[in-house]
Structure prediction request, 543 residues.
Amino acid sequence: MQLTCPARLPLDGQGFDVLVIGGGVNGVAIARECARNGKKVAVAEQNDFASGATSRSTRIIHGGLRYLEHGEVGLVRESLRERERLLRRYPNLVRPMEFLLALSHEPRPFMRSSMAIRAGLWLYHRWAGGPRIKSNCADAFERQLDAGHQWSVFSYEDAQCEFPERLIAEWLSEAVAEGAIVRNYTQVLQIVCIDGHVTGARLRDEVSGEESEITASYIVNASGPWVDSVLQRSGFSFNRLIGGVRGSHIVLPAFTGAPPAAIYTEALDGRPFFVVPWNSQVLVGTTEVADSDDPGKARPVAAEIDYLFDSFTRLFPNSRLTKADIRYSFAGVRPLPYAPGKKMSEVSRQHVIHDHANDGAAGLISIIGGKLTTAMSLARETARKIGLNDTEPANILAAPAPASGVECTLAQWAHLVACKANIPEASAHAIASWHGRRALAIACAASIDDALRLPLCNHSEHIVAEAVEAVMHESAVTLADILLRRVPVALAPCWSESCTQQAASRIGAALGWGRTRIYQESEKFEQERANFLHPSPETVPAN
Prediction:
């Protein structure tokens, strides 16, 4: 059975209450909130949804112990409330995780008292209000640490979203269900402003090449590190808003002795960094480097990779890993507020909602900063800014279920999916974990076509029906949209070019792609994956 892909209907001449520029975590959250308020919403993303800073993060949902140390108590409490909200609403994608705070007494003296740290962690847990994770990870990990150093290890709880790309896809679907019109690969050529008030925008669809003009009462510039360039392209001469900071990561193979908990510690220069179990691998990050270049071309340089790997080795001297074991590295640009003269560690991580009314552009709002954890809170605040009400209560009245309870529910849901689609339980569990409530609809589609039940490649538990779902209901356009973001199997440790060819062939057959289209999509996918996940430190030049 071949499917007809949904058409991208023209936007020219349409009117909207709200145009959101940017399809990352902030933009999609804002669009979802406004659509749930009954507003007619359009979203324009120049690349693919969640393909920028969202997919290049450390993939944790955290309250921010670092912010507590810097006195940003309000940000910590907000982050913890939002963490609990995400745990409760999206338990298949956001999971509780134990974190170990590991502080070395060397090479500089240990400046914090154990009592102060325990008091801070007590407050951190109390503000969150969730069940406390109990394990023996801290003691076991401390025994593995370099015997030549003195360490103090403390256990606390936060959460992980292994695949924020999937969370954005969920939010996008919820926005569309409320009537939002979403367009990836759509460039905002100009924001139109007449008599001191924005009236709409001129767009170009990069898929069809067509240009269009739409009207909008409000325009929210949530384009992340591209905020200033969007404004400049429209001819505005506002003050600079964004001070881009590049954060780089390396991905290592799992190794003997790696703890199941995430590690929060200090790098060689005293900066905080994380070592996190992720996707059957180990994610290490991040750096902080000023970067004012094109955010779409951000990539780690050799010095950053050395810094991360050397800091990791200091923590795990017996891992037996070398730089040759680095599977890949990636980098994204965080859109922090422009703060000349300040150290990057001193710049607040609190988001800013900048109203351009005083700049002569009423109805235009730019979003500065923000992060995955607080995106829904930012969205509610932005909605209030344009006169809308919150669509969800601000308070968390019940703590999320423990991880074991989530696994039990997922297992039951997966069993139903397996029976409906006639697929193995492992595949059903994989589908349920990534697609939640939509898993049964995917199973129903798979149940009527053998080709849709095929795995994406021979060693993947995910199936072709998920790729079809991505195109039909999640705005995926390219093979890369599918395999890197909607069904991100290409982030797995075993992915290879043969997997690409196999997946492209099976997906293409289901979607009615010809041989030429399958070849072209495979080539473009390999190029995009290489530009995102730099496979070897030797290929990354220094600045």
Notes: The radius of gyration is 23 Å. The chain has three domains: 15-53+165-240+349-385, 97-160+243-346, 403-532.
